[in-house]
Amino acid sequence: MKQPSLSAVGGLRALLGAALLSVAATHAGAAVSEVRVLLGIDPADSTGDVLLSASLAPSQSLTRTTGVRTTITQTSSMAEVMRASRTVENEIIIAPAHVTASAILHAYQLLATSGQEQVYALVSKNSIDSVDKLAGKRIYLPQQDSLRSYVAKGLLTESGIKLAQFSKVTYGNTSGGGLVALAFDMADVTVADEAQAKEWLTAHPGQGRILKTTRPVPGGMSMVVRKDFCATDCARLGDWVNSNDGAIPGVGRFRLASADAGKQFTYVASLGITTPDALKGATRVSAEEVAELAKQGATIVDTRSQKEYDSEHVRGAILASYIEKSLKEVDFDVAKDDFSALKTVPKDKPAVFLCNGPECWKSYKASRAAVAAGYAKVYWFRGGMPEWREKHLPVDGSAGAALAKIPAPQKPGGKAVVAAVR
Q1: CA-CA distances (angstroms) from residue 163 to 74, 180, 263?
Q2: pLDDT at 239 over 80
Q3: Residue 81 to residue 128: CA distance in whole angstroms
Q4: Considering the entire predicted model, what is its pTM?
């Protein structure tokens, strides 16, 4: 009997392999043709030196785990990663604690963590003995959207201090730059992890003090999975975490998250600087009220980026991007921002402004601009796209239909959800 050629055998194996991969994808129940993983590297953190090639091996092992092609996109822009935590276009996000906390509030479930607990501290010159004496002083912070800057702003807000009250706000690129700035009298206060701060204070006796600290927060990077994808794949992803593959070079080895970790992320979320509850001159509205206003002919204005709008937007909404460079505060400097797009919004009819929920300041600032410009009736949809999506109201965009099916997100102030794995 004639034996098959080696090339024929190889071709048969390839076909079988493809068939098995297809079966695995079907078994996974995933409606996605590609699993998108966003890896957010905080340049102000110890993981800031992760190589771009670090994601190659994990993407291959995750592809084998899920049965679907998995790509890992790496970025050092914390603003971009924080935005993605609210737009939920990625199935998986791996990022520092503040991004994880935001993602848990917006349709993601916590699966795994890495690193040890961290405590962060506001460190000042020795002559400043309380947080309420910081007004008029100089502050040094790492990158604006870094974890350290996030917790520093939270600690200041708890004490009633706004960044606008400082005489100078300097943003650097490294976590250790603030302590150097203190030593050379280039700043009066900065943020550092507590262990680093204590070491510096020992080496510089009489030069500084710790004013305030956070509770313990998760260190390293954490993995969250979008709820719809988690429903079908978290068990397999849990197996990946527990396997030898469950690590990313430079990030470390993951471990399944505990219930205590969930509580810590709830605390981290509480430090976030959210928009005010009300806006003078504008009417705050819910998703249902926005839908009714749209029926009555109001202009629904999406103030986000073109990319976000193209991916998903309220049906019938127009795009008028708010280019934001000012601080995320009530007393923001409007001169630093660009909202020339407001000219495209009809002035003689009601206008509803929205973006990515309570943590997104673009719609707040846009509503303020519309009120100042004398628009007939201004409505502020503070809940934005997350609330609209939660209510399963009509959306358009390349990813809109799929995103609208995601289960309702975790309410702020509630318990963080940890994914159940076998």
Answers
A1: 30, 20, 28
A2: yes
A3: 35
A4: 0.79
